[in-house]
Amino acid sequence: MATMKVFVFTLIWCLLHVGIEGRVVNLLQSFDGSRISYGFSNSFNRIFDTSKYGILQLNNGLAQTPQMGWNSWNFFACNINETVIKETADALISTGLADLGYVYVNIDDCWSAAKRDSEGQLVPDPKTFPSGIKALADYIHGKGLKLGIYSDAGQFTCQVRPGSIYHEKDDAALFASWGVDYLKYDNCFNLGIKPQDRYPPMRDALNATGRTIFYSLCEWGVDDPALWAGKVGNSWRTTDDINDSWVSMTTIADINDEWASYAGPGGWNDPDMLEVGNGGMNYQEYRSHFSIWALMKAPLLVGCDIRNMTAETFEIISNKEVIAVNQDPLGVQGRKVYVSGTDDCLQVWAGPLSGHRLAVVLWNRCSKAATITAGWGPLGLESGTSVSIRDLWQHKEVVGDAVASYGARVGAHDCQMYIFTPQTVARSVN
Ligand SMILES: *[C@@H]1O[C@H](CO)[C@@H](O)[C@H](O)[C@H]1NC(C)=O
Ligand SMILES: *[C@@H]1O[C@H](CO)[C@@H](O)[C@H](O)[C@H]1NC(C)=O
Ligand SMILES: *[C@@H]1O[C@H](CO)[C@@H](O)[C@H](O)[C@H]1NC(C)=O
Ligand SMILES: *[C@@H]1O[C@H](CO)[C@@H](O)[C@H](O)[C@H]1NC(C)=O
């Protein structure tokens, strides 16, 4: 009898555990009706594994799709002030980027004075933010946008302003009183304390304010945050800081790819902010950067001076079809599914989308133009499946359906990005 009880208890515990920790419905089930074949093969669930994505997320209702907006760091670093933040908000509106979803205006490091005030509160730098953050938040909110701020899970920020460790409650309450909508929380001067101990207190402090605030962990991937941060933040950095170079961007893409199965609505892997438009990469490289970030369900936080963008920069970051891949409600991170060529530089990246579709990127990381072919096997499609293809950079359908593979010529460091829609086939009822 006792053994039976233990057995039943264990069974129930296991079932609950699976329900909580894994995706309840695996992808293939949702992709494969019994009456209709959507053309996906048995290896589909293995290729696009989502089993590590917990449904027990932060539960503040945010990040159902990756966050979109702008952040001051990549272009301005410490050279910020309330004028440039306001002008950026104005530019998000006047360029139409806000209407495409770029709504967070995020101030990075250097907004605060070097010391807390006599009551121990953070103070905006009186020289650069003389009107204070509340006034800035009101301005930003008046435009229908949201304001993000920055602090650090340590004694100081990376630029040696006061950090928030042991001040979580005060600082969260202050941010909420200003009307802040987003907190990026950095990892400098962390006193050698584990991030698993330093990041949850701010989560709880933000929650206790009663204001819904996006919580972005910037832990640099040091302690593999994908393994634990789903219950702590809405996104977590998986890597070191990006810099405006091809080597940095490609290195970071590969590291972020390793954690694909842990991302989903409520909590995303963060391979850091966009460098598109900052001048260190060419048009093809920036287009690849944007395409792969969109496919990986990375936060799309523009990092250039959007008051002064080139037409090429605007064309890249305003591509509605690529943004739609990033914001797709299915919320499954795309990943690298096939490589060939010298040093694996010819690559196929892909990810499932709602509506039984696939996003596919052919990415040429070699130094010469080449043809890259995506076979149906690596994409998790049954051979013989007829697929219609839309080109997201040409904004047109590719003529003629493909039935076994699809290949295209891709320039050096460039990519092509598509949506593949397999033709559904009714199964015979018997
Ligand atoms: C504000 O910052 C911008 C960008 O760094 C700079 O060009 C401008 O001169 C600054 N304005 C003031 C008043 O400091
Ligand atoms: C605080 O956390 C609870 C429990 O997860 C959640 O239901 C609630 O929406 C959160 N509130 C805010 C303001 O984030
Ligand atoms: C940019 O990142 C790459 C790759 O991580 C690194 O090798 C390089 O030193 C960095 N460059 C700068 C200027 O920090
Ligand atoms: C605008 O950007 C161009 C480069 O694209 C640069 O040469 C110019 O100085 C910038 N203007 C301002 C006002 O920042």
Automatic annotation (TrEMBL):
UniProt superkingdom: Eukaryota
Protein name as it appears in the record: Uncharacterized protein
Organism field: Pistacia atlantica
Source lineage: Eukaryota, Viridiplantae, Streptophyta, Embryophyta, Tracheophyta
